Amino acid sequence: MPVVTVEMWTGRSREQKRALVRAITDAMVTHAGAKPDNLHVIIHEVPKEDWALAGVMGDERKD
Amino acid sequence: MPVVTVEMWTGRSREQKRALVRAITDAMVTHAGAKPDNLHVIIHEVPKEDWALAGVMGDERKD
Amino acid sequence: MPVVTVEMWTGRSREQKRALVRAITDAMVTHAGAKPDNLHVIIHEVPKEDWALAGVMGDERKD
Amino acid sequence: MPVVTVEMWTGRSREQKRALVRAITDAMVTHAGAKPDNLHVIIHEVPKEDWALAGVMGDERKD
Amino acid sequence: MPVVTVEMWTGRSREQKRALVRAITDAMVTHAGAKPDNLHVIIHEVPKEDWALAGVMGDERKD
Amino acid sequence: MPVVTVEMWTGRSREQKRALVRAITDAMVTHAGAKPDNLHVIIHEVPKEDWALAGVMGDERKD
């Protein structure tokens, strides 16, 4: 049943995303006893300029 | 007051979306006694390649 | 595939919630062509005192 | 720790968004005692045609 | 129209929450030109033991 | 920066949840190149009676 939503900056490759959702699905099966059949992993890509940490947008950060 | 968020694959037509939000609004009014005035229905369209079920992305699925 | 999240005040009965999720599921099947098998409807009940409209919390509102 | 998500119609300028996330961050620090370092403010821009109020999509509304 | 969701640890007082939603509403009106009438601010309180930062749950953190 | 939200039925133990957030954090670091410092994993536990699949609530399902 679980639904996992990953909010992260835009920019990962398709291969990274595919490997990521497989690893998260495995983690849910292994540690939460979830059944894969109804286990959704949804990626929300957010532009850096729409995501602030400590009041500073991603595209303005120096780190 | 309620806020209903619909997360689904990209690709429905405007007519489908309009009919959908009306039907969901009606369902909320009929079954949850919600007042339409402050009832929001928000559609989040997610690309197939960003949505995995059972660890497999939508654009890789055979079904 | 779709995931519908309903955020509303605490307080509906189980019968109301059951009728609501059936009606929303029907709306998704009828108007968005969704397959029921992987269609989730998740209800988030939020206390009135944690939900503000126009800056006023639900438990302070006069309407 | 807090994560604040702002869902609103597409269309604000970068300056508006920057000022908005600073003000929301200040509000969280002032009123909720949050530490800025791990305080995220995420903006989800949603097209008017995907957001209904009282069953009517944003791009169809007269007000 | 906007909907602002604040996810934070359980534990703020009602007065803190009321002041917080007023300040966030003001920020949305001032900086995003939002109309207060349909502006929702929803607080999701999450127990520390259900929120991890850097892989460590809130109730296990030393800082 | 990423924020991962896990929505699942109520009922996992603290040990399961701790192991789960560590595994998801590792997956994000390994496959999405995320830095652990600002990586949040938030668990939303939802009662079975508030989560429907194919129009049937979790506490009514036979499987």
UniProtKB/TrEMBL annotation, chains A, B, C, D, E, F:
EC class name: isomerase
Pfam families in alphabetical order: Tautomerase
Enzyme Commission code(s) on record: 5.3.2.-
GO molecular function, one term: isomerase activity
Start and end residues of each 4-oxalocrotonate tautomerase-like domain: 2-57
Keywords attached to this entry: Isomerase
InterPro entries reported for this sequence: 4-OT, 4-OT-like_dom, Tautomerase/MIF_sf
Active-site positions on this chain: P2 (proton acceptor)
Family, per entry: Belongs to the 4-oxalocrotonate tautomerase family.
Name of the molecule in the record: Tautomerase
Source organism: Rhodoplanes elegans
Organism lineage string: Bacteria, Pseudomonadati, Pseudomonadota, Alphaproteobacteria, Hyphomicrobiales
